[in-house]
């Protein structure tokens, strides 16, 4: 009887282990699926011209902080020209192409992005022949959520694009990234006092605030970020060394993804500069690439599942160990045994 109960418990707890391992992984399917799409998705382009296509994102209500868009193109119809342009990204991780594929990846600082028309980036392909040619999103593409680092991209739900390649002038001229007005910076200034340095500047339209600085020219190892969209920017740098020369530059990006970068030169802190606790939100740009690397995309789901699996496994082992010891230490009933012979 004990062996039967032991086998039954073994089956039940084995099922519990399997369910617990996949329960967290299955949670990602509950999240709304995001999609990528091409703009324009059709048109006519002349041989010898450069066809410019943008990749846009619909998060379907989810907040995301990293995107990888991998695009397949036929090498007999196109040659890769360039990739990048304006984007919702705060940091680019890759914008390369060639051999039949374009790769664009990047990350965003909090609060991330939520919307149906986010500009991931643009790319150019030089037309080589006449006929019809298409683009499609390739495996490796991903859209990662701000909360949980889950990949919610529906690759099957991300439509492709088909274009007519003709001789002569194109019937539908492509839009170029330069069609968006540039963002400009003015009145850049560094105000130094004994406890901090305030970097201030103005932009011609609302944008975020980002300052990079360091003790060597063109080596900006520390950064401070404010995501509020404003036209007058002030960023307080604290925790600086006394009587030290710092080099800095500022960045701003508007809601449409247009970014401007401007060097501010250098400033020197005072002799009695005090060390204070940072009050501005600091972000390390090196951490952005880890969010969109192949090892981490969707990795939050895997590791949380693995931890849950290990915890349940330990509980099961302890349960069986306790049960076996209990059965081995139960007193033997001697009421029905024959009397011993003295």
Structure characterization notes:
With 342 residues, this protein is α+β, with helices and mostly antiparallel strands. It has 3 helices and 16 strands. It folds into 2 domains: 31-179, Immunoglobulin-like (Sandwich); 185-283, Immunoglobulin-like, CATH 2.60.40. Strands 2, 4, 6, 7, 9, 10 and 11 form a 7-stranded mixed beta sheet that branches. Strands 12, 13, 14, 15 and 16 form a 5-stranded antiparallel beta sheet that branches. A hairpin with a 7-residue loop joins β13 and β14. The longest helix has 30 residues, at 299-328. The protein is flat, with a radius of gyration of 30 Å.
Keywords:
40% strand; seven-stranded mixed β-sheet; Immunoglobulin-like; 342 residues; alpha+beta; 3 helices; five-stranded antiparallel β-sheet; 2 domains; 18% helix
Helix-strand category: alpha+beta
What count of domains describes the coordinates? Answer: 2
Uncertain residue ranges: 20-29, 275-299
Strand tally? 16
Distance between the termini: 35 Å
Q: What is the CATH architecture assignment of the largest domain?
A: Sandwich
Q: What's the gyration radius in Å? A: 30 Å
**Helix residue percentage:** 10-25%
Question: How is the main sheet built?
Answer: 7 strands, mixed
- Count every helix, treating DSSP H or I runs of 4 or more residues as helices: 3
What's the quaternary structure here? single chain
CATH class of the largest domain: Mainly Beta
Q: Looking at CATH, which topology of the largest domain would you report?
A: Immunoglobulin-like
**Helix and strand sequence:** HEEEEEEEEEEEEEEEEHH
> What is the overall pLDDT average?
78
Shape: flat
């Amino acid at each position: 009887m004990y062996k039967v109960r032991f086998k039954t418990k073994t089956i039940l707890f084995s099922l519990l282990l399997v369910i617990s391992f996949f329960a967290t992984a299955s949670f990602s399917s509950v999240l709304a699926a995001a999609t990528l799409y091409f703009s324009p998705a059709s048109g006519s382009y002349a041989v010898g011209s450069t066809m410019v296509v943008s990749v846009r994102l619909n998060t379907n209500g989810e907040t995301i902080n990293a995107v990888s868009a991998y695009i397949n193109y036929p090498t007999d119809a196109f040659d890769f020209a360039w990739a990048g342009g304006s984007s919702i990204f705060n940091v680019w991780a890759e914008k390369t192409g060639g051999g039949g594929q374009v790769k664009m990846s990047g990350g965003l600082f909090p609060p991330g992005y939520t919307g149906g028309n986010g500009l991931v980036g643009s790319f150019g392909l030089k037309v080589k022949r006449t006929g019809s040619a298409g683009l499609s999103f390739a495996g490796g593409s991903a859209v990662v959520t701000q909360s949980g680092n889950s990949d919610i991209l529906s690759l099957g739900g991300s439509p492709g694009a088909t274009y007519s390649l003709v001789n002569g002038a194109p019937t539908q001229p492509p839009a170029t990234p330069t069609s968006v007005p540039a963002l400009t910076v003015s009145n850049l200034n560094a105000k130094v006092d004994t406890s901090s340095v305030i970097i201030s500047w103005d932009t011609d339209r609302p944008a975020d605030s980002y300052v990079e600085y360091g003790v060597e020219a063109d080596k900006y190892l520390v950064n401070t970020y404010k995501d509020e969209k404003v036209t007058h920017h002030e960023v307080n740098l604290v925790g600086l060394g006394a009587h030290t020369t710092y080099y800095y530059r500022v960045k701003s990006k508007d809601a449409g993804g247009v970014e401007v970068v401007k060097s501010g030169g250098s400033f020197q802190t005072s002799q009695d500069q005090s060390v204070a606790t940072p009050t501005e939100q600091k972000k390390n740009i090196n951490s952005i690439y880890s969010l969109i690397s192949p090892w981490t995309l969707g990795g939050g789901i895997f590791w949380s599942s693995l931890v849950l699996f290990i915890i349940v496994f330990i509980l099961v082992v302890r349960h069986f160990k306790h049960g076996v010891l209990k059965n081995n230490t139960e007193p033997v009933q001697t009421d029905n045994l024959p009397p011993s012979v003295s």
